[in-house]
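Interim report, section 4.2 (structural modelling).
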Amino acid sequence: MSLHLISFKTCPFVQRAVITLKHKKIDFDITYIDLANPPGWFLEISPLQKVPVLKVDDEILFESAVINEYLDEITGGELQPRDPLARAKNRAWIEFASDMLGNFYRMKMSKDKERYDKYRDRLVGQLQRVEKRLGDGPWFNGEDFSLADTAFAPLFRQNSVAGGKLSVIDPESMPKVSAWAERLLALPEVRDSVVDEFEDLYLAAMEKNGSYSLYRLAA
Ligand SMILES: N[C@@H](CCC(=O)N[C@@H](CS)C(=O)NCC(=O)O)C(=O)O
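Predicted structure of the assembly:
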């Protein structure tokens, strides 16, 4: 069976799949597209016109959470809890992380303080909720590394750009989130889940958009 991931270099949703693939040491090919100028073949195969898309031989899978569950299921399935309720809750938190990624994107691309503050406040509220949900770790569900960890890790990678100068995680008030994020960022599968030029591309997109948080960084 051949697995071929269609990616955009700074997309955190694709990054979730790359982390899972690398964590499970699954062979895959990757093709990067430009979302500002998507090729016709991509628009043809991607029902929502979004990445990630995973080609499994000639079949098409889309949606990062679905792709990750599939990758896990074909390789032993240990990244989802066995108990149905625990598994459902894990899926719900993965959806929560997707909402956070949306707020993170809107925050980083905000052109003015008002909009920036609005999404930052939402994100901080969500991080505080995660703080209450976390136990003693080391992972989201305690001892067992799971798809919730691979789903949240891209958020923490984005939060760590520019040496953490744009971080919204306050270690004092969010000690568990902070420690969990550091632990995830230290994993080789997370470290190697982005291209070498990730930070340059990420910051360039913010600059092109007139991002308020970059302006704060320069001030
Ligand atoms: N719910 C989707 C979200 C994927 C998504 O938003 N991808 C973005 C890039 S990070 C995209 O392809 N955007 C293109 C568009 O919206 O036109 C998932 O989890 O896979």
